Each structure stands twice: as C-alpha cells, then as structure tokens.
C-alpha cells in the first residue's frame, strides 16, 4: 500500500530522516518507536505531504503523495492539536469532518453515540471550544475524527500520550477493531507496552534510520526494553556522512 524509497530530510546540514526503502502492506498494523528526535514525526509529516523531503518519494497505492490528491480520500491522520479547528466546538468539528466524507448530521450523531465510552462524558455537550479542552480531550477529538472518516489508512502520532489509562485501554480496542476490518494502521508511541499490544509489526527508528523491522512476538517487548535500557549510540549524520556525537541532533519537526 505504501512504498518509501530513498527518503531523506535535512535540517541545518543534519540528515534527520534517511529511509532507503520501506513497504507497508494493505491491512498491516505497524508501530513506530524511537527516542525523542529519532525522526518519527518528520517521517509521518513527509508521508502526509506536510513537508517535502530533500530527495526520495512516498507513494500510496502507486500515487506519489507529493502533490497527489486521491490518497487523501482514504487516509485519516492525527499528529497533534494543529490538525484541529480549535475555534469550533467538538460537535461543530465532527459535523464539519463528517460533511467532508458524505455523512449527514444523523450519521454523525449515531457515530458520536457509539463513542460515548471513549469520550467518557468529557467531550460532547460541554459548550466548550476545542481550544479550551485539555490536551487529552483534544487528542480524543482528533482520534475520533479519524475514526469518523471510515478510512483505509489510519496514521496516529503518540495517541496514547496525555490520555488516562481507561481511555488508553479503549483506544487500544478501537485500533484492534479497525485493523480487524482491514484498516491499515500506522501508530507511533513511546509506550512500548501499548505499541506491542496493538501492532503486529514494529519499526525501531534511531537518528533518522529504521534500524529494526520486526514482527511482534511474545519476546518483542523484552527486546525493545533491552535496547532502550542500554541506550543507542549517539550518531549525528550530516549530508557528508555519519559522525559520532555526544549530543543527539535535534529535529525541529519532531515533537515527541
């Protein structure tokens, strides 16, 4: 479904993403893990054509996402609160998103009713603008708006951050259900327990490179915990090549 080839992004002469090749098949559930500054968010933003790479390409169902339009009709994503229209109430926002995907108010109301457990009485009917919600409740709105779209591809950046344990549990069930229906899911997270629970394939990213690509098994969580317990070697890669560094390079697009 998704093909990445020779994808590179440079900031201040530092190569912050360098992915020679990556394929994600239709219906896969893929988790992306890595430390702050690993390049996860930057990779997501290039996959969504929010920023352009120095070189390389991302294609979705054979269409180059850079300048393409068709892929947007089946792709739902939430990276941060910047994806929301914060001067709307949650209800207004859901009606707006629903309208973009051919859903009327009755359809949206039925969807919102089905999300009552996930919302936990904190989102609908509160008379608040999205900008006045907590970070966690803003994330709920963003994730729910993705679910409303009935997409084929779902991309979420750190969806478990800022939400309470009960909501995290419900979100995991939502992701598993979506994937069971054939939705391709791509989720980044710092929470190794959650990501190994909901994803069948794990990509470990460090300093812009995907250094491990593993199928999730009963030992995957332990393998990841051992890796992060030891800590990766700090390497800064410039346009001319890699150099060892005691201070990791900072990726300005990496917000997690």
Could you write a compact summary of the structure shown?
With 256 residues, the protein is of the alpha/beta class. The chain has one domain: P-loop containing nucleotide triphosphate hydrolases (Rossmann fold, 3-Layer(aba) Sandwich), CATH 3.40.50.
Written account of the structure:
The protein is an alpha/beta fold. The protein has a single domain (2-36, 54-244), classed as P-loop containing nucleotide triphosphate hydrolases (Rossmann fold). The protein is 32% helix and 27% strand. The chain is built from eight helices and twelve strands. The strands form three sheets. Strands 6-7-8-3-9-10 form a six-stranded mixed beta sheet, sandwiched between helices. The chain has a four-stranded antiparallel beta sheet with strand order 2-1-4-5, covered by helices on one side. A hairpin with a 2-residue loop joins strand 4 (55-60) and strand 5. It is globular, with a radius of gyration of 18 Å.
Which helices and strands, and how do they pair?
Layout: E1 2-11, E2 14-24, E3 29-33, H1 40-47, E4 55-60, E5 63-64, E6 75-78, H2 90-100, H3 105-114, H4 116-119, H5 135-148, E7 153-157, H6 165-180, E8 184-188, H7 192-198, E9 201-206, E10 209-215, H8 220-230, E11 235-238, E12 241-244
Parallel strand pairs: 3-8, 3-9, 6-7, 7-8
Antiparallel strand pairs: 1-2, 1-4, 4-5, 9-10, 11-12
Straight-line N-to-C gap: 26 Å
- What is the average of the pLDDT values? 90
Query: What is the CATH C-level name?
Result: Alpha Beta
- Placed side by side, the strands forming the largest sheet appear as 6-7-8-3-9-10
Broad structural category: alpha/beta
Summarize the amount of helix as a percent range: 25-40%
Instruction: Output the radius of gyration.
Output: 18 Å
How many β-strand runs?
A: 12
